[in-house]
Amino acid sequence: MTVAPEAPGARRPPWPPRTELPGLLPRTEAPGGERRRTLTALRDTDVYAVVGSLAAALALTWLLFTRLLPFDGVVGFVVTAYGFFLLLYALLVSFDESGPAVVDRIAAAVVRSLGLLLVAILAVVVVYALVEGRKALVHLNFFTQDMELAGPLEPLSVGGALHAALGTLIMIVIALVVTVPLGLVCAVFLNEVPGPFARFVRTIVEAMTALPSIVAGLFIYATVILGLGMDQSGLAASFALSVMMLPIIIRAADVVIRLVPGTLREAAYATGASSWRTAWHVVLPTCRSGLTTSVILGTARGIGETSPVLLTAGFTSETNLDPLHGPMVSLPLATFEFVKSPEPAMASRGFGTASLLMALVLLLFVAARVVGGRGPGHLTRRQEHRRVTASRRDASRFAERGAGARPSADAKPPVPAADRPDGPSGPATPQSSDPFRTRPGSSS
To answer: Which stretches does UniProt call biased (Low complexity) (predicted)?
Structure first.
C-alpha cells in the first residue's frame, strides 16, 4: 500500500487524534437542550396552581350565590365551586404545560377529588353513628346485657346489644364455614378446568352477584323452613347469608386466580406435579392475599343484611346461643328495631348498635389480614422454623453420606494388578489376616 506524502506546510496536531466521549450533562438539562422535568416530586408551581384555582373558585361561587344570582344551598355551592375549580386549574396548568399534560392533570384532579369525597362520606357516616350513639356506648351494660328486662321506656343503664352481637358472630361464622370452601373450590374449578360447563357456571355466578337480599331470604324460607320443616333459627339465617355471600366470594376469587402468571403453572407441570397439586401448592399460595380480600368482601355483604335474617331467624330480645332452635337476632336487625322506635333512649341504642357493628367488621377485617394477608413467599415464624429445621436435617444427612463415601485414613491402598498373587488377569481377592485360612484350590 502506498502512503501519500504530506503536503508541505501542513500543521500536525500537537497530540495524536483520539476518541472523545461526551461529558456528563448537568442534571437539569437534557441532551436536546431542554430543561429536565421531574415527574415524581411535587413542584411549587403545582401547589400554587391548586391553591390559586381553589381560592378563585370559592370567590367566584360566593359572588354568584350572594350578589349576582338568586342561588342558595350547600350542594349547589359545592358543585358550582368544583366546576369553577376544574376550569381555572386547567387554565393555570396550560400556561406551563402542553395539551396532553393538561388533560393528565385534570384527570388526576378528578380522580383524587373523588377519592377524597368517598373518604369524607365514610368519615361522616362513622362519626355521625358514634356521636348519636355516644350516650349508649358509655354504659358498660350495653356490651354485657340483652334486652330481656329492658323496655322502650327503660333508661340506658338497663339493657344492651349482647344478644345481637353474639347472634351476628354465630351466623357469620356458620356462613363462612359454608361459603369459603365452596367459593374457593368453585373459583379454582372455573380457572383450572375450562370448558362449556365452566362458562355456564361463571355466567350464573355473575348473575347471582346482583341477587336481592329479600329473594335469598324467601328462597331459604320456602325450601328450608317450609319445605324441610325447620324452625326459624340462626342456622336458617346462615344459609340465607351464604346464598348472598357465595357469588361474591366466587367472583372475586376467580378474578384473583386469573392474575396468577401462567409460567408458574408451567413450571409446576414441568416438575411432574398434577393439576390439583399445582393448584394447592402454587396457585392458591400465590394469590393468598387476594383470596383474603374476596372473603372480606363476601363477609361485608352478608354481615350487614337485615331482611334475610328477619325472614329466616325472626326477632328476639333474649340471648340465644343455639343456632338450631329458637329465633336469633343480628346487629343490623337490632339496629332497625331500635331506631324505628320514637323513644330517644331506643334511638341511642340503635346508633350504638350500628357503631358496634362497624367495630365488629373492622375486627374481622384486621383478623383476616393478619391470618391471610401475607404476600406470596412470605412465611410465618412457625413455617420459617420448620424450614430451617428441615434444612439442617438435610445438611446433616448429606454430611453423613459424604463421610461414608470418603475413604478413611486407616484403609490400605489397593494392591496393583502386577503384584497380585493370581497375576494381572486374576481377580483381586482381599488379603486376610487369618494365618490359618488357605487359598482356594490348595490342599489343607
So the answer is: 1-10
